[in-house]
Amino acid sequence: MKKERLYLYELLEDPAVSYPAWYLLSPRLHRDENLRETLRAIHSTTFTPYHHPETLSELFDAFHSGIYPIYKESYAAGEFGGRVMLLEGKGWKSLPFGEEACKPENWLI
User: Fold this and answer.
1) Where do the structural domains in the chain lie, given as residue ranges?
2) Would you put residue 80 in left (φ > 0), alpha (ψ -120 to 50) or beta?
3) Amino acid 29: pLDDT
4) Residue 93: phi, psi to the nearest 5?
5) CA 63 from chain center: how many Å?
6) pTM for the whole thing?
7) Helix (H) / strand (E) containing 86
8) How far is CA 11 from CA 14, 42, 64, in A?
9) Inter-residue contact 86 to 71 (CB < 8 Å)
10) Which end of the chain is more exposed for a tag (fewer CB within 10 A), N or C?
11) Distance between CA 16 and CA 61 in Å, rounded?
12) Cα 17 to chain centroid, rounded
């Protein structure tokens, strides 16, 4: 499947965080408005509508409902095939689910 670049300038005129300049995504995720909203929040550093989950169950409920939680106010996260993945410029990278990933204060939903 051919990947598409989602350029930051397609999301925001004046991003507060300008790195990475694009994300490499599948055509379906390139069009996913929930993912675009999460990326807008990250790059504008506007986290007002977000909150820290109280439990990991609340976090996984967000994943299952099609929301892309934010990890450490820097990464959009998704769950694909039972793996939690973080979106970087070159695509999705597996998140080692250790102690840091289990702390609700590191997540926003």
Assistant:
1) 4-108
2) beta
3) 96
4) -130, 135
5) 10
6) 0.93
7) strand 83-88
8) 9, 11, 24
9) yes
10) N
11) 29
12) 14
